[in-house]
Amino acid sequence: MTGQLAFVESPVQLLNVLEWAHTRTPGVSATEADATPPLTVVVLSPTDPMSRGQLRRMAQLARDQGLTVHWQEARGGRGALVRTLRELARPLRSAERVIIGDPFSRYVQLLLTLFAPRHLTVVDDGTATMEFAAQLGRGERLVRWHRKGNLGPRELVLAPVTTLARRKLAPSRGRTVEIFTSLPVEAPPGVTVTENTYAWTRDTFGPPLLTGGADLVGTSLVETGVVDADHYARVVSELARAHGATRYFAHRRESAEKLHRIAVETGLQVVRPELPLELIARRGPIGRTVVSFPSTVVHTLPLALAGTGVKVAVIDIAPEWLRATASPRAQGFLSGITGTAAHEVDRLTARAAHPTDRLEFG
Question: Cis before residue 11, ω within 30 degrees of 0?
Fold first, then answer.
């Protein structure tokens, strides 16, 4: 088998495929580069416009780096799934290594059940990497951390696919598994963990121009049903006042209604980034302080911005912010993100005895 095949469904996944490829080729000779199996990136295109726009721009960056990028309308209406499987069957069978960004993706799981690679690499797509490594190590079924424990009708139908995919995502006598990550994960038995230092991002962009004040980084915790919308809006307002923030970098999944409310109630300039935040921050301009809710960026931004003087801070999620419908695992998982952040990251704690009380940050 020859060649390497990457499946990406988000801009961050594609960024981390670029970072992975960079670790395989820095400083190699022309002869060694010719001997490296070619890497083809298949974009399993999402439907939301923000993700599609960022992916288009990331795809061009990947082409500029010499990678072959194939845009697959994997969710383009009736027949898209069958068409995608038919078009990808041959490259999947011939791939020596398959690189994926989201082991929880039903689409990727289905592909893996049909075609099992000899070598598998999982790159970061947010904090899900931490949960994947933990569940793989404990031998549990793969479930996103913000999902409720009970299986719904759709999950019951897809349960056989998830079970088989979990076996294909685990190392075996005929398959190696690598996790390429910037996050603090404990390697499951038989799995190799390779550190992602964001060397390609630093080598390619910046250093950035620093502005005064702070920038806030948004999250989709409201959209995923974890955090109460009123609590979230109130904390964003308090953070903006406390840190002199002027801009709010929106997560690509944040709703237009929520972002409009934040802009009106806080006066913050809401920015919808055209690229993953690691690249936006590295290119600049960026605030001297970046304040984020618990997310991957509290691990990645200190790496991407190393040596620039930018300070990154993370705000703890208080239990009273969680919705009643949030998964029982939500509080522990979010606390784990802030608790394992790099030592360069400041932890902020919001204390509020009652929703109408003013929040204090310490």
Answer: no
**Which of 187, 78, 58, 73 is closest to 130 using CA atoms?**
187
Q: Kindly report, residue by residue over 287-335, the tens digit of the pLDDT.
A: 999 999 888 889 999 999 999 999 999 988 888 888 877 777 677 767 7
Partners of 70 in beta bridges: 42
Strands 360-361 and 68-72: unpaired
DSSP for 236-304 reads HHHHHHHHTEEEEE--TT--HHHHHHHHHHH--EEE--SS-HHHHHHHS-EEEEEEE-SSTHHHHHHHH
Q: Smallest Cα–Cα separation from 325: which of 150, 102, 106?
A: 150
Angle between helices 256-266 and 229-243 (to 10 degrees): 40
What angle in degrees, to the nearest 10, is found between the helix axes of 80-94 and 106-114?
50
- Strand blocks (E) in the chain: 4-8, 39-44, 68-72, 97-100, 119-123, 176-181, 191-195, 210-217, 245-249, 269-271, 286-292, 311-315, 346-348, 350-351, 360-361
Q: Residue 160: helix, strand or coil by DSSP?
A: helix
pLDDT digits (tens, 9 = 90+) for 175-230: 999 999 999 888 889 999 999 999 999 999 989 999 988 999 999 889 988 889 99
SS3 (DSSP) at 79? coil
pTM of the predicted structure, to 2 decimals: 0.86
How far is residue 355's CA from residue 235's CA, in Å, rounded to a whole number?
10
Q: CA of 300: how far to CAs of 85, 259, 281, 297, in Å?
A: 33, 24, 11, 5
My answer on whether omega of the bond before 38 falls inside 30° of 0, hence cis, is no
> By percentage, how much of the chain surpasses pLDDT 70?
84
Q: How far apart are alpha carbons 1 and 97 in whole angstroms?
A: 9
| Cβ-contact 44, 112 below 8 angstroms | no
Q: How far apart are CA 270 and CA 250, in angstroms?
A: 7
